[in-house]
From TrEMBL:
Swiss-Prot/TrEMBL keywords: Golgi apparatus, Membrane, Protein transport, Transport
InterPro entries documented for this protein: ARM-type_fold, DOP1, DOP1_N, TPR_DOP1, TPR_DOP1_M
Limits of the DOP1-like TPR domain: 964-1082
Record region (Disordered): 1-27, 995-1025
Main subcellular location of this protein, as a coarse class: Golgi
Taxonomy, superkingdom: Eukaryota
Pfam families, per the entry: Dopey_N (PF04118), TPR_DOP1 (PF24601), TPR_DOP1_M (PF24597)
Skewed-composition ranges (Low complexity): 1-24
Listed name of the protein: Uncharacterized protein
Length: 1084
């Protein structure tokens, strides 16, 4: 291996030792190597031998025996040096190979052989040579003590003691740190056999550099070793325990007044400044091993107490705070032995006087020696250290959770917690609140786990006194007030405030105080955001309170009177300004009942103010707040409640007078307030009935096709009002009045635009109030709104809507076609049409029952008029359009006279038949309505369902009577209707015959149909001769011979033209009497 190549090899330094130690420029070489090589032939031969020995290394040896063989050859070559040779040729290459032979992975035999070569070189060549080349020899030896076996150390100690450490201090100065790093591993084990010898080596090295007037270079390098090399800290700690000067004053350690006097050794150790000393302890306290931390804490207590002048005056404040921060981090280990040492360092030694009371009894005493010591020496640095932890712009959740855990541990000592918590409680919440705005929820949750533990450890009175200070600036409209409320609301959301003392004392007081601030300030001073935030917080606080809070006995105030309403706020302020003893329960400044009444009064005042200002957001919040308060507080009659009722009345009256509507949210709040006040009997039913017409009128303004988003809630408000006023018909009267007033109001052209709007409003209310029946729901989709499902509630709604419904349906029979178009369109698609028919048919049924009992029970004419009116409405609904009304009426089930169920169509047809059969009171208008209704039925899609009612017999009988009584109007109607009824009857008979033939058919391939087929005219040849109704011929003969028929012969002839072909086969025997009657009529 060439000399140049060998010289290019870098020297290996121990871990964390920095760069290779510099060599003094004045001692780089003993002589000119080039000149000696040229002048001395023996020296050239010696250099060649060493180079030849080095060349055998060509590649790294594979076995440990190869290393020993190489070292033997190298030693033999070195031993062949000429006499008085001043240096070793190829020194750089030799030291490089020797360092590689000291690899920790090699066996101890290789290490012994390498040290033997080191020892021979050190003993053979002069100290001048070793000093000049120390930077080449030392890197290989620096780390040997960290792994040297017991067989290696006996040879290693003489090498250091006799040669390296024997060098002058001026030569060792550049390598002092490396030497310390090399020797410190040897003193890690205090119980080892060679501890004293290793300790003596370090001590001798200190004596070389430490003397009177020294610059403290040894301790500065020693502190750097501790700072930069964690693996050397245990050995350094063992040496510092024995040799580190004490930096405490010569006076007593527990004295508060400490003179700035320290020993000369301590002065030298901190020269030129104590920054490295502080950083040395910071590194030790931050070590990952608990034993190292414990040792450095012991050193702090014994050698560097916090009252030391080094820390209090000579060290910079930043260094002291850095040291305190490192000491506080020890608390995170939650180890009692470490904490005990930290308390001693921060609070000073324990009092030696046995008569001194413990902390539980002296918690409030300012004369405690440890409390005075802490405030004098430790508090300032601790405050700044914890502040820095909270104020640092942290990114990781663990970094922010750390100060909360530290503060929780510091609260174990009352001397610290009594001034720590007031200082950092709100500051920590500010910091966490700011962090939550930029971090994710998972990160915030991680920090909250530690913050909640700290929060729960704070005494309740102190906590709420801090919150009280936070609320004192909320009466302004500034952003600071909004940020204060935002912080308080965030705290209530994320921390638990359900302690018994908080619920019974602090939360009611703070709620009252916050509401009193908002009530006392003018609205122009407060911003809307501030008011909303205050109301949200008040609602959250009130929701936390159980109702028992305002029913508790006022034991705290049994010996003094509660302040008046105006003085309650001042009493609360005084209560939180006065510090409370931690051992005594806080006395509430006001009775719980007075606080409850004050809350109700302030909320009522705010609600009245918001209603007058029409601030709908705050009004909604205050209305909910008042409802919640009324549910928990036994409220007597308050003037503020009556003022609220008067404000509601005046605002409704003003809106009606100005013909303008209140905001919908305001109407919702008014109804909610009426519900709450009526539930607590704070408003009479009569007052509510007086308010109802104006409230309903305001609600109906939002039941408009143009305001579809309010339909559901507006309908809900109407029924909420009805529930409050039931069984009164106030809502029914208001709805009817709205329809009637709209019906009378017309525009300049005479169009009933107001009526159309009122009908549309009713249609919307119906759609969101009444569900479809069991049949109608399958054919039409109703409102998506959950309607009344309780039968009793549904019956109530139908009763309320019945009268307005009749007014709407009246449009079908009494209004112009243009006005009835919307009603027809509504009926053709309404999902609850079966409910409409139910209302109409039940009324018809009741009227017919009343009319049968006689006129003594009710005015007969009025009863007949109502029945006529209802029949016309039924006909108008059925003719509204399409098959949907007819199908709905057919699927509707009514109870018959015999108690069996029958369809609604059959029920209506029977009622009309009864009217025509004179089983009810006589009225031509009623009978005409019944005939028109039957005519609609007989021409409807459901006419085949009426085939079993024998309508033709009833009609023929009524025609005979009409001819005899000369009732011309009925005469003509009946002549037109009877052929249709007879044809329906005959079609049903033919259909039955076809069904019988199909049943008797021998073919079994086809299943008989369960649906009755509609007869066609082509099937008439299938039926035998059919008999006419019994009274038909008699009626015809009487009609043709009567004088009344003279004016209606054309109708009679048309009637015969329809009847005779129908009974062509069976009427032949009766033709002679008919011809005779006809001839007689012609003769007349």
């Amino acid at each position: 291996m060439s000399l140049d190549a060998a010289g290019a090899v870098r020297s290996a330094s121990p871990a964390s030792s920095g760069r290779s130690s510099p060599v003094p420029r004045s001692r780089r070489a003993v002589e000119d190597v080039t000149g000696l090589y040229k002048a001395d032939k023996s020296l050239r031969r010696y250099a060649a031998l060493i180079e030849r020995a080095l060349s055998t290394w060509e590649t790294s040896p594979q076995e440990w025996a190869d290393y020993i063989a190489f070292l033997g050859r190298l030693l033999k070559a070195i031993q062949s040096q000429p006499k008085e040779t001043p240096f070793l040729p190829h020194t750089a290459t030799v030291t490089s190979k020797l360092a590689q032979c000291l690899n920790p992975a090699l066996p101890s035999g290789v290490h012994q052989k390498a040290i033997e070569v080191y020892a021979y070189i050190s003993a053979t060549f002069s100290h001048e040579y070793l000093s000049a080349h120390l930077h080449e020899y030392l890197p290989g030896l620096a780390s040997v003590f960290s792994f040297a076996s017991l067989s290696v150390r006996p040879a290693l100690y003489p090498l250091f003691e006799d040669h390296i450490l024997a060098l002058p201090s001026l030569d060792l100065r550049p390598a002092l740190k490396s030497l310390l790093l090399a020797l410190l591993p040897a003193i890690e084990e205090e119980t080892s056999e060679d501890f004293d010898r290793a300790y003596g080596n370090v001590d001798s090295l200190e004596r070389k550099f430490t003397h009177y007037g020294s610059d403290g270079y040894f301790w500065q390098c020693f502190f750097l070793c501790v700072i930069t090399s964690p693996s050397r800290r245990q050995g350094a700690l063992n040496y510092m325990v024995r040799k580190l000067p004490r930096f405490a004053s010569k006076s007593q350690d527990d004295s508060v007044d400490v003179p700035d006097e320290i020993s000369a050794e301590a002065e030298a150790a901190t020269s030129p400044e104590p920054g490295l000393l502080v950083r040395c302890f910071v590194a030790g306290l931050s070590d990952a091993q608990m034993l190292v931390q414990r040792g450095f804490l012991d050193l702090l207590v014994t050698h560097l107490p916090i009252h030391s002048p080094i820390l209090q005056s000579k060290a910079e404040k930043v260094d002291l705070e850095r040291l305190v921060s490192a000491a506080l981090l020890v608390l995170l280990r939650r180890d009692m032995s470490l904490n005990k040492r930290l308390w001693t360092w921060l609070l000073g030694p324990e009092p030696k006087d046995e008569n001194v009371t413990d902390h539980s009894s002296a918690a409030g005493s300012e004369a405690s020696p440890q409390a005075k010591y802490f405030q004098a020496f430790s508090w300032a640095a601790l405050k700044n250290s914890v502040s820095a932890m909270f104020e640092t712009d942290v990114q990781r959740p663990a970094d922010l959770a750390r100060p909360f855990r530290i503060c929780l541990s510091l609260m174990d000592r009352w001397e610290i917690s009594q001034i720590l918590v007031p200082e950092f409680f709100m500051r920590s919440l500010h910091c966490l609140h700011a962090y939550s705005a930029r971090a994710s929820s998972a990160q915030v949750s991680e920090v909250l786990r530690s913050a909640n533990l700290f929060f729960d450890g704070v005494e309740a009175h102190l906590m709420w006194a801090t919150f009280f200070e936070l609320l004192q600036g909320t009466g302004d409209s500034s952003s600071d007030a909004l940020s204060r409320l935002g912080l308080f609301e965030w705290v209530l959301e994320h921390f638990s405030v359900k302690d018994e003392e908080m619920l019974t004392t602090h939360i009611p007081l703070c709620t009252f105080y916050l509401l009193d601030i908002i009530t006392g300030r003018q609205s122009s001073v407060q911003s809307e955001a501030v008011r909303q935030a205050a109301l949200r917080i008040s609602a959250r606080l009130l929701n936390l309170l159980p109702s028992r809070v305002f029913k508790l006995p006022d034991l705290a105030n049994d010996d003094r009177s509660s302040p008046a309403g105006g003085q309650m706020r001042a009493a609360i302020e005084e209560h939180y300004r006065t510090p409370q003893s931690t051992n005594s329960k806080a006395r509430a400044p006001c009775r719980s009942s007075d606080v409850g009444r004050g809350l109700l009064a302030r909320i009522a005042q705010l609600t009245s103010a918001f209603l007058r200002e029409q601030d709908v957001v705050c009004l909604d919040m205050s209305a909910h707040l008042l409802s919640s308060a009324l549910s928990k507080i036994q409220a007597p009659f308050l003037t503020e409640i009556q003022q609220l009722i008067d404000t509601i009345d005046s605002e409704l009256h003003s809106s009606d007078k100005q013909q303008s509507g209140l905001p919908f949210s305001a109407i919702t709040c008014i109804v909610s307030l009426c519900t709450s006040l009526l539930g607590k009997s704070l408003i009479t039913l009569q007052d509510l009935q007086n308010l109802e017409p104006r409230i309903t009128a305001q609600i109906l303004l939002f039941v408009s096709p143009l305001r579809s988003k309010y339909h559901v809630e507006a309908t809900r408000l109407i029924w909420q009002l009805d529930d409050l006023l039931a069984p009164s018909d106030a809502i029914k009267v208001s709805l009817v009045g709205n329809l009637r007033s709209a019906n009378t109001s017309r525009d300049n052209k005479g169009n009933a635009s107001g009526h159309d709007s009122a009908v549309k409003r009713f249609a919307i209310i119906w759609a969101h109030s009444v569900p479809s029946g069991p049949h109608g729901a399958t054919s039409r989709r109703g409102s998506a709104t959950p309607t009344a499902s309780d039968p009793a509630r549904l019956a109530r709604r139908l009763d309320v809507l019945s009268e307005p419904l009749l007014l709407v349906l009246d449009t079908l029979i009494g209004a112009a076609p243009s006005e009835a178009d919307f009603v027809k369109h509504w009926l053709s698609g309404i999902a609850g049409l079966d409910r409409v028919f139910t209302i109409l048919l039940r009324r018809i049924e009741g009227l017919m029952l009343v009319s049968k009992r006689g006129p003594e029970l009710r005015d007969e004419l009025q009863c007949l008029r109502e029945t006529t009116y209802l029949l016309e409405i039924v006909r108008g609904v059925l003719c509204a359009g399409g098959e949907w009304p007819w199908n709905c009426l057919t699927m509707l089930e009514m109870e018959s006279r015999s108690g069996e169920g029958e369809s609604g169509a059959v029920f209506v047809a029977k009622c009309a038949s009864d009217i025509l059969s004179h089983r009810t009171s006589h009225s031509l208008d009623l009978e005409e309505s019944a005939l028109r209704l039957l005519n609609s039925f007989l021409n409807s899609p459901i006419r085949h369902d009426l085939g079993d009612l024998d309508l033709e017999a009833c009609l023929i009988e009524r025609l005979l009577i009409a001819v005899e009584q000369q009732q011309d109007a009925l005469h003509v109607h009946l002549l037109q209707l009877i052929p249709t009824a007879i044809k329906l009857r005959l079609d049903m008979q033919k259909s039955d015959m076809v069904d019988d033939r199909n049943i008797r058919s021998p073919s079994g391939s086809k299943q008989p149909s369960t649906v009755r087929p509609k007869p066609e005219s082509s099937q008439t040849n299938l039926a035998p001769s059919l008999l006419p109704p019994p009274l038909l011929l008699q009626c015809v003969r009487v009609g043709l011979t009567s004088k009344a028929a003279h004016f209606h012969y054309d109708q009679w002839l048309e009637f015969l033209n329809k009847i005779l072909p129908t009974f062509a086969d069976s009427i032949f025997a009766s033709l002679l009497p008919l011809v005779e009657s006809l001839c007689g009529a012609i003769g007349q």
